[in-house]
Amino acid sequence: LAPPASHLQLGFGDHDGGRLVAAGDQVIHVSSDQGASFAVAALPDDAKACLGSKRGPVYGGGVFLITSSSGAVCRSTDRGTTWSKSHIGFDDVGDPLFYDGAFWVYRYARAFKSSDGAVWTEVASAGVTRFDALAASAATGTILALSGGTLYRSSDAATFEKLPPSSYDLGGASLEHLAFGWALPSSACPSR
Fold this sequence. Notes:
Elements: E1 9-13, E2 19-23, E3 28-31, E4 39-40, E5 54-60, E6 63-68, E7 72-76, E8 84-87, E9 97-99, E10 102-107, E11 110-114, E12 121-123, E13 133-137, E14 142-147, E15 150-154, E16 161-162
Antiparallel strand pairs: 1-2, 2-3, 3-4, 5-6, 6-7, 7-8, 9-10, 10-11, 11-12, 13-14, 14-15, 15-16
């Protein structure tokens, strides 16, 4: 990538055949050819705050979104080509999630929601913490969230249930990342 970028976070948006966004510490790159080539996105200096301690990029509703632990937000409504700034209104927010037509971020006992990534509203919530990783299944409506090695489950993005460790016994290993996907049952991962 030119210019070089460090600490890259990657995100994919199913827009116009797919867009891949690579967000570095000072620059955002975008690809429309499945990563074969990248172009530097237009990012005003006042929007670069979202790239420090970044979370995302995530895509939904025609918008790419990157949040930062500082509460700064970068958003693009043109397939990642140009970006603008916003702010959630609070710092120390965790990873963003796009679920049921809206972006969500979490800050300890608070949840914030936005339909466009620009204007954020606090939402009444329960069982919410600052999540380190989130994954959602549109097929089942289930959201899994991770905080400090503890797993939480939700069906509405506002109310979370803390799951007992026995429900996700990893034989001493710890969870760090979450992703949704389908797999066929096997001896290593049997169906229940």
